Amino acid sequence: MKRLISFSLLFFFTSVSIAYSEPGAEIFPESGHSEPVNSLCFSPDGQFIASAASDCTVKIWQTGTGKLLRTLTAHSDSVNAVCFSPDGKQLVSGSNDSTVKVWDIQTGGLLRTFGDNEAPVRALCFSPDGKQIASAEEKTIKLRDAESGNLYRTFGDRSLYVTSLCFSPDGKQLLAGSQDKTVKVWNIETGILLHTLRDHLSNVRSAVFSPDGKQIASGSGDNTVKLWNAESGKLLRTFIGHTANVNSVMFSPDGKFLAAGSRDRTLKLWDIETGTLKHTLTGHSEGIRSLSFSPDGKRIASGSEDDSIKLWDVKTGELSRTLSGSRFSVSSVSFSPDAKFIAAGNKDHTVKIWDFQAGKLVQTLGEPEEAADISKPWWHSFIVIYEKVAEVLGISYLTGHVSDVRAVCFSPDGKLIASGSSDSTVGLWDFRTGKLLSLLEGHADAVYSAAFSPDSRRIVSGSRDSTVKIWKYGTDTVLSKTLSGHTSEVHAVCFSPDGTLIASGSADHSVRIWDAENGSLSAELTGHRDAVYSLAFSPDSKRLVSGSADNTVKIWDMKGQVIHTLTGHSKAVNSVSFSPDGNQVVSGSKDNTVKLWDAETGKLSHTVSSHSAQVNSVSFSPDGRQIAIGSEGNIIRIFDTVERKEKIIMASFENEWIAWHPGRLFYTASAKGDEHAAVRFDNRLYPVYLLSLWRNELKKPNLAETLSLPQPEIKPR
């Protein structure tokens, strides 16, 4: 087991949509994307950079400081493309949700939405005069009026599957890269196809005009970059060197260099005139999907499947800055039986306990994953030696999980916490002392789910090893039964409230109901078209709700019949739960939304859509008044089901944390937690200020006590 002593670490942040306070000030923690970055674009003046990602968001950053300025959250599926208008006042984005959205840069307001809901938008761009927007919607390219959204012209044919779009600098031509291995160029006014450029051996993933419009560059799945004469269509040069798909190509603003980003994790920069390689830039841990040069040509930005954006110095090839989010997230949340605390399973290997009313992180169970770049203190080697000696001598030395905590739950009697981890173990913790009582070993792979029986004497766990295991808790916690039958990983398990049944949900698309006493299979529920990620029994044990990667929620009876199929999520449903009275179902999704449903009718009653990252876990409080929502970026929100609004937001950043009421300016935080949050005024994009500047005025020891205080007035500093 690893042992880690606390350290202070400046860490990257997570952005959250926050309500406004009376004086027009807004608090927000800062962070990066939680999924691959698909598209990047510098603003015309170079001050800002926009990024679009598979986490359904668009983010705007200040180039000079790397500060996150705003997160745009109206898309309901992966955002594939983003582009600034030529005047820098608007931003356009295209998504798998089949829409094109136009945003006001200063306010973040959504100005217009275009789209016919027929196909995902794979690529888009503004015309050089800003009057038109071209969008690629699978086999067609649509040219629309940027103001009205009226369709001006459609390009394309059955063989065309567009991956990339670019206007010529004079706005008279439009080129498209396609999966049919070609680059096509059209005359915009007449709609006539001028050229079809053929030489790639695989799909063309990116294609652009040079700044003078005389050349075209294309990058392909054949690992090459090709340079073409734009007027004749003649192939001029082929650049080789990448060892995987070339996903993005870009000319420097002066037209002297050509950049290419690849799935091989590198960015290459070539001299166009000589064909020589100037730089190979390395640093991303996953493939590069997008590139953008700054208008002055001094910097280039790369967006990656590692969820980060890197800014590079073009002259030296050195990394200038990384725009990145938290490496960790909240994977599971659970209320204590007395509704005073929330346990959160985290990907940093720990379980965190929050007194959410007071807004305090009161305990961390286990030891956080140590950061790779932190030098260890001189005495760390002695701890490592002690651990190794203890292991050899067979001495028990339990410190916690050594991988992601995927599941967490309180025992019904409130005395214990169970945690399931990717390290293949189930942890049992004493809630009062925080002591690790036992690590239950028996699974052969990651434990995705864990739950207590109603009498707190048994624990059920589901694993990637396709099995369900039942453990008996006592002086010596022992494995009681292993339930086999699923043909793929088990993502969800739960006991029925009466303790007689166990339900398990699997990547084999099925739900199985087992007799909790003898382990026999009682029923198999089929109907989902993809993995079942979450399960929960109704309070009377007569119904079961399931959430699936097929984007649906299903409510079943115990005979295996589907009562309702709840549709509305646009991505996988990661978590579901019944309200304590059985009248409502809550679901949290990878589409960044939480939905409340009427359990009797199956109708949608409310959508919470302000989240800027996927929702991993939802849990009703014992009185049903509140819902805890855990998401990527180590954020927990408390949603009031009666008032239908978020009441508390809690964020953690490794060794620091902060909590506040949306719409209020008072907050609670660890010693430096407020250095991970910012304030903006009057909804302006820029400037933003560190929250810690107002530490003396706004930081309080107990969040609950601030509700009776008048809202303070603060001004920019």
Q: What brief labels describe this structure?
A:
717 residues, mainly beta, Thrombin, subunit H, 6-stranded antiparallel beta sheet, 4-stranded antiparallel beta sheet, 47% strand
Give the helices and strands, then pairings:
Blueprint: E1 25-29, E2 37-42, E3 48-53, E4 58-62, E5 68-72, E6 79-84, E7 90-95, E8 100-104, E9 110-114, E10 123-126, E11 132-137, E12 140-145, E13 151-155, E14 162-167, E15 173-178, E16 182-187, E17 193-198, E18 204-209, E19 215-220, E20 225-229, E21 235-239, E22 246-251, E23 257-262, E24 266-271, E25 277-282, E26 288-293, E27 299-304, E28 309-313, E29 319-323, E30 330-335, E31 342-346, E32 351-355, E33 360-365, H1 380-393, E34 405-410, E35 416-421, E36 425-430, E37 436-441, E38 447-452, E39 458-463, E40 468-472, E41 478-483, E42 490-495, E43 501-506, E44 511-515, E45 521-525, E46 532-537, E47 543-548, E48 553-557, E49 562-566, E50 573-578, E51 584-589, E52 594-598, E53 604-608, E54 615-620, E55 626-631, E56 635-640, E57 645-653, E58 656-660, E59 667-669, E60 677-681, E61 689-690, H2 695-698
Antiparallel strand pairs: 1-60, 2-3, 3-4, 4-5, 6-7, 7-8, 8-9, 10-11, 11-12, 12-13, 14-15, 15-16, 16-17, 18-19, 19-20, 20-21, 22-23, 23-24, 24-25, 26-27, 27-28, 28-29, 30-31, 31-32, 32-33, 34-35, 35-36, 36-37, 38-39, 39-40, 40-41, 42-43, 43-44, 44-45, 46-47, 47-48, 48-49, 50-51, 51-52, 52-53, ...
